[in-house]
Amino acid sequence: MRSVTTQDHAFEVAVARIRLVKARPEFDLDEAPAPSRLAPFTLAITADSSGVDDIASGRFVLLHDPDGVDEWEGTFRAVVFVRAALEADLIDDPLLHEVAWSWLTESLEASGCQCLQLGGTITRNAGRSFGTMNERPTDGYLEIRASWTPTSNTDDVSEQMDRHARAWLRLLDHAAGLQPMPDDVSNVLHSRTRAQR
Predict the structure, then answer these.
(1) 37: in domain
(2) Fewer C-beta within 10 Å: the chain N or C terminus?
(3) What DSSP character marks residue 116?
(4) Strand order in the sheet with 74-85
(5) 14 closest CA partner among 190, 115, 157
(6) Number of structural domains, the chain?
(7) Per residue of the chain (197 residues), what is the pLDDT tens digit?
(8) Does residue 168 sit within a domain?
(9) Ordered DSSP codes for 119-160
(10) How open is the CA angle 60-42-25, to the nearest 5 degrees?
């Protein structure tokens, strides 16, 4: 068992900050099992559409290694995933990949995030029907996978981890085609999750 260190305390602070982040009413947030093999300390938050329509879903994973990881250039790593249905006019848009990546960079900037080693992939999947199903509309979805190392010039980076979770939620809003809303709209985690802790 690992001994408690200041870095372990930093992870606890980071988790506490993330749990304070508020989601908009269209999404339910829950904690989920995190990938334990990627780092000694991990947290995973999932987002799913709260209504009947599955407009978008996502996952935010925070990794922490007190010893640091050379590839990260730090001790924390944020890993995000977003999946959203594509509107018909965007399915064949040649600039979709670039636009979706700009959603991520704009979300990080709007949330006041500083980071290193930002990278990711944008995937578009679309299906067309033929024959007797020819009249069905073309459908598709967009997937955004990205990761970055949270940094800070002044305060302890763990104290600012809520900004990185907010950036993920802003990215989810963009992908779902939702208008921006204030950060204090709804509760952070689904009530049953809070009750379990």
Answers:
(1) yes
(2) N
(3) E
(4) 27-32, 41-49, 56-69, 74-85, 139-151, 114-127
(5) 157
(6) 1
(7) 343 344 488 999 999 999 999 888 889 999 999 888 889 999 999 999 887 677 899 999 999 999 999 999 999 999 999 999 887 667 777 888 999 999 999 999 999 999 999 999 999 887 666 777 777 666 788 999 999 999 987 668 889 999 999 999 999 999 988 876 655 554 444 433 433 33
(8) yes
(9) EEEEEEEEE---GGGTTSPPEEEEEEEEEEEEE-SSS-GGGG
(10) 30
DSSP symbol at 73: T
Longest Cα–Cα distance of the chain, Å, equals 64
Cα separation, 100 vs 141, in Å, equals 12
pLDDT reported for residue 51: 73
DSSP secondary-structure letter at 161? H
The one-letter amino acid code at 107 reads S
CA distance 191 to 18: 16
Q: Which two tokens stand for residue 10?
A: 């930093």
Range of the domain at 36: 6-196
CB 185 within 8 A of CB 22: yes
Positive or negative CA dihedral for 183, 33, 61, 146?
negative
Could you tell me if residue 1 is inside a domain? no
Least Cα distance to 185 among 173, 171, 197 occurs for: 173
Report the Cα–Cα distance between both ends of the chain, in Å, rounded: 21
